[in-house]
Design brief:
Blueprint (H helix, E strand, L loop, with lengths): L2 E3 L1 H7 L4 H8 L3 H9 L6 H11 L3 H4 E3 L8 E7 L10 E7 L2 E6 L12 E6 L5 E6 L9 E6 L4 H12 L2 E6 L2 H9 L5 E4 L11 H7 L5 E15 L20 E4 L4 H13 L12 E2 L2 H9 L5 E5 H6 L3 E15 L6 H9 L3 H11 L12
Parallel strand pairs: 3-5, 8-9, 8-10, 12-13, 12-14
Antiparallel strand pairs: 1-2, 3-7, 4-5, 4-6, 6-7, 10-15, 11-14, 11-15
Helix pairs in contact: 2-3, 6-12
Length: 371
Amino acid sequence: MRVENRLSQIRKSRGVTATELSRRVEVSRQTIYAIEAGTYVPNTELALNLARELEVTVDELFSLAGAAPKSPETFAAEVLSATSVSKGQPMRICQVGTRWVSVPVSATPYYLPEADGIVKAPAKSAAKADLLVFEKQEASQKRLILAGCDPATGLLSRMVERISGVEIVSAPASSKLALTWLTEGKVHIAGSHLEDAKSGEFNLPFLRNEYPNEDFLVVTFARWEEGLVVASGNPKNINRIDDLARKNVKFINREPGSGSRGLLEQLLEKAGIPQAKVRGFDRIAYGHLAAAYCVLSLDADVCLATRSAAQTFGLDFIPLHSERYDLVMRRRTGELPAVKAFLDVLQRATLRRKLEVLAGYDTTETGALVA
């Protein structure tokens, strides 16, 4: 049976020229072209080298012509989630370096979520699961994982996909969790808005203190306002952080490690309010939109979130603090063609206008390199 290959398609999707690939695997450029044309079948060593350089499996590069279509494949992947996953849960998958990671997706009313497969069985460790996926090789091409808590990065993700074809898989996470995943090699980009209480600087002091040996590239996404999100019309007249201590006010908090949780704790300490006095301090919502939705559904009277979260659900917003949200990645990751396409979109005026109008963000520093 004739050997078919997807070398040309995968190479081009990675933004790698034939000359560059030939240099990496130490063969001539003509050899690469011959393999792509199907006139030369590489030996095992060359096939393995090609797969390694393009970060795919040999099976994804080469197959036998006439082979039966693949059935859904089962394989183990790491799970990026602040909560445990369940059997049958839809998942997106992505290859980060040589490891496979998966991200749970949630359904919106009336529509099944877009997914690559489902959880076949949760593993003993909450950080892993056995997945049943439809087309594994598609997830290895032009796809990036972005972890963080800013819902407005969805505007950026959709524009990146429309302009460059690079697909962004969003992994909801607190700032500290997103950075942990980044340093563990599980995501390409992490979003963060961690403020240093002493200097008032965002993200850089935390990165220097926690990860002194890492070489990070830090780019500003936008500045936002964070504050109290309350029901439309503010029926309980909640205007200050002190109001959270009132007995008739029910609060919904964010998870430990999030920038919002850190801000709340700073504000309470400054106001001299014990955490135990806040009704609902131990109740957790994962993400700005999730917290704001609790207010919309009357599960809480107030939360601490961004103006964009309040605007999304038509809620009232009382600003308390301005914050800078940065996108953090390893410097070598910034050299990937897909990441360069991602960063190029940050410079577009169309994106900035959308962030200003739809999210209420200050985009003066959007796209600025801060480290």
